[in-house]
Design goal:
Layout: H1 3-9, H2 36-44, H3 58-70, E1 75-79, H4 82-93, E2 99-103, H5 108-120, E3 124-128, H6 133-139, E4 144-150, H7 162-171, E5 175-179, E6 197-201, E7 215-219, H8 222-235, H9 241-251, H10 254-273, E8 278-282, H11 292-298, E9 305-310, H12 313-323, E10 328-329, E11 339-341, H13 353-358, E12 365-369, H14 375-392, H15 406-411
Parallel strand pairs: 2-3, 2-4, 4-5, 5-6, 10-11
Antiparallel strand pairs: 1-7, 6-7, 8-9, 9-12, 11-12
Helix pairs in contact: 1-3, 3-9, 4-5, 4-8, 10-14, 12-14
The structure holds pyridoxal-5'-phosphate.
């Protein structure tokens, strides 16, 4: 099956009693055993069949099969949130004294749990610019167990080379884990480039409607699945059947949403590039993106996340946030509606300014998640909001003609 067919069909029931076309919500916490012997056989793993929803549930299985199929992976494990997926992988694969190498612009809470909770249990972590393979290689120690990257990265749209990172990780005996949230399996399948474990926040593109949180772990093989699955069941960061059903409903249009959103994003990126109130645009689809070639090589499309640097720094960013009407001022991404946020004061406010700057998250960076609306409407909204910067931050007294000021000159 091709990926768009998988998005619609993978995990759906084929031999159900009533011929239902949608997966039913098996809202049951526990499952009866036909006999004491069957119950014992299920617990010992000698018989398939459900036991208790924390350990597995048919609606959740359907979603796990769907996302694992989209990733061309072995098996999926659905989790309560994306962070539950990430923390479960860390709990399963790290131990006291072990070390992890990750990207300096990894999702904020991923870095926070490594530097606080996992550090407390004796796990060390190093964060590097993972778009530079030599930095990854240099950071690896004898105790390194995991190389964990996110590409494209949040919010700088930095691209890391998946195949190159896989080679370095494997040469050094490390498990290579990728957070594939930003691309979604529709645009990037890290297993094809040597990744061992993929994690997702289903909250974003896979569900796609900004109405559910959820996560997924997908492994490449059975042995890795066997390492992680018991930890998930025991720590309990598992999904609820109703949540799984909602995400299944979302994933069935993944290909339609992603195609439309990235088509919009490409047009907006070009428009923003030429806008006088925009200093720079980072979008992997633009030829001037520093890792455009790597993105073109390892992705099927460039996605719908754009970072721009607006004139006026922090103040300029705030004016844009407060001036948009169609874009929603909210964190998160990957929904059908377009969102806008300001990392320095919002998602990445917990990171120190010095570290933000090291990771390229400057004050003027505005992050845009492009949705599926009419692109003309989106462009008009951004244009108005950006022009509000020059209107508000006019450095000249009103009576003066501002003809010679470059900001106004270009804006006309
Ligand atoms: C949102 C996000 C997460 C966390 O997912 P939740 O569902 O919010 O727990 C992890 N990684 C990336 C890249 C994300 O965007």
């Amino acid at each position: 099956m091709k990926k768009s067919t998988k998005a619609i069909h993978a995990g759906l029931p084929h031999n159900s009693r009533y011929g239902e076309v949608s997966v039913p919500i098996y809202q049951s916490s526990t499952f009866s055993f036909p006999s004491a012997e069957d119950g014992a056989a299920r617990f010992s793993g000698n018989q398939s069949g459900y036991i208790y929803t924390r350990m597995g549930n048919p609606t959740i299985t359907a979603l796990e099969e769907n996302v694992a199929a989209l990733e061309n992976g072995h098996k999926g494990m659905a989790t309560a949130t994306g962070m539950a997926a990430i923390s479960t992988v860390f709990l399963a694969l790290l131990e006291k004294g072990s070390h992890i190498v990750s990207s300096d612009c990894v999702y904020g809470p991923t870095r926070v749990i490594l530097e606080t909770a996992f550090a407390k249990f004796g796990v060390a972590s190093t964060f590097v610019d993972s778009s530079d393979l030599t930095q990854i290689e240099k950071a690896i120690r004898p105790s390194t167990r995991i190389v964990f990257i996110e590409t494209p990265a949040n919010p700088t749209m930095k691209i890391s080379d998946l195949a190159g990172t896989a080679r370095i990780a494997h040469k050094n005996g490390c498990v290579f884990v990728v957070d594939n949230t930003f691309a979604s399996p529709y645009l990037q399948r890290p297993f094809e480039h040597g990744t061992d474990v993929i994690v997702h926040s289903l909250t974003k593109f896979i569900n796609g409607h900004s109405d559910v949180v959820g996560g997924m772990i997908v492994t490449r093989d059975e042995s890795m699945y066997k390492n992680i699955k018991p930890v998930l069941n025991q720590f309990g960061g598992t999904m609820d059947p109703h949540q799984a059903w909602l995400v299944l409903r979302g994933v069935r249009t993944l290909h339609l949403r992603v195609e439309r959103a990235q088509e919009n994003a490409m047009k907006l990126a070009r428009f923003l590039e030429s806008h006088p109130m925009v200093d720079w645009v980072l979008y992997p689809g633009l030829p001037n993106h520093p890792q455009h070639d790597i993105a073109a090589r390892q992705m099927d499309g460039f996605g719908s996340m754009i970072a721009i640097g607006v004139k006026g720094g922090l103040d300029g960013g705030k004016i844009v946030m407060n001036s948009v009407r169609l874009f929603t001022l909210a964190v998160s991404l990957g929904g059908v509606e377009s969102l806008i946020e300001h990392p320095a004061s919002m998602t990445h406010a917990s990171v120190s300014k010095a570290e933000r700057e090291l990771a390229g998250i400057s004050d003027e960076l505005v992050r845009i998640s492009v949705g599926c609306e009419d692109v003309g409407d989106l462009q008009e909204d951004l244009d108005n909001a950006l022009n509000a910067i020059s209107a508000t931050l006019n450095p000249f007294p009103l009576e003066r003609t501002d003809e010679e000021h470059p900001l106004f000159e270009e804006n006309r």
